[in-house]
Design a protein that fits this description.
Layout lengths: L22 H44 L6 E4 L5 H30 L5 H37 L10 E4 L2 H16 L2 H10 L5 H6 L1 H15 L5 H33 L1 H8 L1
Parallel strand pairs: 1-2
Helix pairs in contact: 1-2, 3-4, 3-5, 3-8, 5-8, 7-8, 8-9
């Protein structure tokens, strides 16, 4: 009697041609991974509800330290539902940030079967680099809070007797947006490296269009910075420009190594 053939999971093959999933299987797999991400978001969101207040107090202390002493500053609620909604927003943000790495992992597991080994290799390299750059960007965004607040508050001196009363959470969420914007912005080299490695954009094309790319980076920095001031925009645009050219150099060096590995006879001919 013939033994039953065990069906291989469609996302476990190293060769995308070895097993092709049907459209229904793709939809089922996508639905399953979306449900996992939503579940993770709910779990982290519930945990975020309990740590929202301690985290908010810590961030608020950072904000208060950035406000000049000569400026009267108060935070107020404009409705009796304000405290509940603020804690709910904090819990959602915490849940979103906590579930983000898991969501990225689920996305990778979904698209991995459709990629060939030579297409997977750049992505595997980029994952740790992307995480490092994200943390670097978040650190720069955190450091930019103080000069950004000081720069905006300096204009209050032109209006004597002015005080600053803001809705509770406004400054804290400005800090969160600033940190997250810098973290996202620092992913530009990763995107550039990936697009060139998979052949969507040629490295030579980027080099020829470096002026247009620089202008696009400054426009991107202007869009991403939540405060909108030129000081913060430059603080994001200048490092991004440096990282952009660094990614072009990295692609050039790695492409040269790949060509040498794929065609070692050229190196032997050069030695002769």
């Amino acid at each position: 009697m013939a033994l039953p053939v065990k069906r291989k999971r469609w996302n476990s093959s190293d060769d995308p041609e070895e097993f092709r999933a049907t459209l229904g299987e793709h939809i089922d797999e996508l639905r399953s991974r979306i449900l996992r991400v939503v579940t993770a978001l709910l779990v982290f969101g519930v945990a975020g509800w309990f740590i929202a207040l301690p985290l908010y107090d810590k961030l608020q202390q950072t904000v208060f330290q950035s406000i000049p002493k000569w400026l009267e500053y108060r935070e107020v609620f404009h409705s009796f539902t304000g405290p509940f909604m603020l804690q709910l927003r904090m819990a959602f943000v915490i849940g979103l940030m906590g579930a983000l790495p898991y969501a990225i992992a689920q996305l990778w597991l979904f698209i991995k079967p459709g990629l060939r080994p030579n297409e997977r290799r750049p992505i595997r390299i980029l994952f740790p680099v992307s995480g490092t750059l994200f943390l670097m960007g978040c650190s720069v965004g955190w450091l930019m809070l103080h000069p950004t607040v000081v720069w905006f508050c300096s204009f209050f001196k032109d209006f004597r007797g002015s005080v600053l009363y803001q809705e509770q959470g406004t400054m804290v969420f400005l800090l969160v947006k600033l940190v997250f914007a810098f973290g996202v912005g620092f992913q530009l080299p990763v995107v550039t490296f990936f697009l060139t490695k998979v052949g969507i954009i040629e490295n030579a094309t980027l080099m020829r269009s470096w002026r247009h790319a620089t202008v696009a980076i400054f426009i991107l920095a202007m869009i991403l910075t939540p405060s909108g001031d030129p000081f913060t925009m430059l603080a994001m645009a200048v490092p991004l420009t440096i990282l952009f050219f660094g990614s072009i150099l990295a692609v050039k060096l790695t492409t040269k190594k790949d060509n040498t590995r794929d065609h070692p006879e050229h190196e032997l001919n050069n030695l002769d």
